[in-house]
Amino acid sequence: MKNYLAIKKKLYEACVFFVEEKHNTVSTSIESCKKALFSETKSSAGDKHETGRAMLQLEMEKASQQLTVINQMRKVLNKITFENSTDCICLGSLIFTNKLNYYLAISAGKITVDNEIYFAVSSNSPIGKQLLGKAVGDSISFNEAKILNIY
Fold first, then answer.
1. Model pTM?
2. DSSP assignment of 24-69, as one string?
3. What is the pLDDT of residues 125-151, one digit of tens each?
């Protein structure tokens, strides 16, 4: 008998790690851009200098948007309780189908736990929207999968 609570906990921890890694990468990028922005000195080629500054500003804006997405992922993860099991799929559900296994949380992709593959998907993703609210025995159009178990 598998311990599904332990699997859900490992999947949750993998999602948290995924978010933290993304946060660290984006934060490093922002710091790098800030340093480059403040260290850039005006040269005789003024237009070239302004173009470089504009590019750095764009990079920082892009990184800032990524931080917003990362913070939204954190909020979603904070809503998950993996202790309880329900009859229908909701945030934090572990879903077994005849095709693939899913964990409804954030879009973190393929995660391997105890030599078994799971796909962490967001409830806002196309597959997540199809899974949300379904019960054992229901089918989804993605891969024509049938839901076998929910934990």
1. 0.86
2. HHHHHHHHHHHHHHHH----S-HHHHHHHHHHHHHHHHHHHHHHHH
3. 999 999 999 999 999 998 899 999 999
